[in-house]
Amino acid sequence: MSFQKDYYGYRLTAVGQPLERFEGSMEGPGDDEVVIGVAGCGVCHTDLGFALDGVPTRKPLPLALGHEISGTVVAAGADAAIREGQDVIVPAVIPCGNCHACRTGHSAVCRTQFMPGNDGDGGFASLVKVPARGLCPVPAALPAGVALADLSVVADAVTTPYEAILRSELSENDVAVFVGAGGVGGFGVQIAAAMGAAVVAVDIDPERLTMAGEHGAGLTLNAGENDFKAIKAAVKRFRKESGRNGIGLKVFETSGTPQGQQTAFGLVDFGGYLAVVGFTPKKVEIRLSNLMALDATARGNWGCPPERYPGAMELVLSGKVKLGPFVRHFPLDDTVQVMAAVAAHKMKKRPVLVPDRKD
Questions:
Q1: CA–CA separation, 188 vs 160, rounded Å?
Q2: With 108 labelled, which of 94, 98, 171, 222 sits at a CA distance of 20 to 30 A?
Q3: What is the maximum alpha-carbon separation in the chain?
């Protein structure tokens, strides 16, 4: 198809260096691709892992980061099922759909998956080209207070804990404990509460704990003011007082820190379940035999399959999960400053980069 449009963005050129602004001309999509006009792109700690910690990207640098993308299809390839003008959320991980893993219900480990900002250029740009498969259509009319740019965080910060919660088989009989109440954990608290569970939030940031308490957490614990024994005792009391009779705590590690992972592992009890949702490249020392002795389960999840996205989005559109209080918009041209602020732990809300759409 005939398509060519100027665009701009920010890309990583070398680990440890600020992202660099670039300008270019986007060529048309292949038959099975689409070009998205980016409405918003969330900034995730995984982006920091690539930019600062030396976590390797699968596509060599330079590379535009960003895997939490929402926007509008501005060009669609001949084989694309979705058409121009459709607003969409782009899955953070797009499986191929054809390999043995995909065909047997294990698409998260598809070896030919596409992750924007890792396998190819991502959403830190005004335009992005992605596979046409798996895109989550967004209704034309959104509820008051929900913007298309806000929905970018559904691509990871909402759907990743959503998938972890579904895998844990969380029910209204359970107590869910989120260690880390930031972007991912804050949404996890809301999702678990929407599913009827009694929820505990653990963090070191008083503001995040206040937000968690206002949006579903029945107990908030400051790990900077309480040692592990005190936290464990408080969770035990809360569970008893909640009257929930589920077998074992459902613990969700959403901090992505060594300390948080040690705390989460230590809270696992008899028949408990540990979901490893956060990521850190640093090693953690634990006694793995606890899983055997407690007949407990520990499981990670790499994102969320695209077919689950509509269910997660519906929680937002129905008002059961609030985005507005947890996100903050920034112009795309503030990318360098936003990345630095996130790295310095100065961001209380999930930053969403919004391109100047006048181009």
A1: 9
A2: 171
A3: 64
Identify the H or E element spanning 144: none
Q: Given strand 273-276, what is the order of strands in its sheet?
A: 219-222, 198-203, 175-179, 250-253, 273-276, 297-300
- The CA-atom distances, in angstroms, between 53 and each of 17, 57, 126, 210, 282 are 11, 11, 26, 30, 10
Please give the distance of CA 254 from its chain centroid, rounded to a whole number: 10
Secondary structure letter of residue 88 according to DSSP: E
**Helix (H/G/I), strand (E/B), else coil: 103:** helix
**pTM, whole model, 2 decimals?**
0.95
| Short-list 242, 243, 241, 223, CA closest to 231 | 223
Residues 6 or more apart from 260 whose CB is under 8 A from it?
179, 180, 202, 223, 253, 254, 278
What residue type is 320 in one-letter code? K
Give residue-wise pLDDT tens across range 156-214.
999 999 999 999 999 999 999 999 999 899 999 999 999 999 999 999 999 999 999 99
What gap in Å lies between CA 203 and CA 221, rounded to an integer?
7
Tokens of 264: 């989460």
Nearest Cα neighbor of 328 from 83, 96, 43 is 43
Contact criterion met (CB below 8 Å) for 223 and 182:
no
The answer, yes or no, to whether the previous bond of 62 is cis (omega within 30 of 0) is yes
Region for residue 81 given its phi and psi (left: phi exceeds 0; alpha: psi -120 to 50; beta: otherwise): alpha
Q: Enter the tokens of residue 167.
A: 């895998």
Q: Do the beta carbons of residue 132 and residue 53 sit within 8 Å?
A: no
Q: What is the pLDDT of residues 40-80, one digit of tens each?
A: 999 999 999 999 999 999 999 999 999 999 999 999 999 99
Burial of 108 (C-beta count, 10 Å sphere; 0-12/13-18/19+): middle
Delineate the domains of the chain, giving CATH numbers in brackets.
4-156+304-354 (3.90.180.10), 159-300 (3.40.50.720)
Report CA 121 to chain centroid distance, whole Å: 18
Q: Tell me the C-alpha to C-alpha distance, in Å, between residue 332 and each of 7, 116, 277, 336.
A: 12, 17, 27, 9
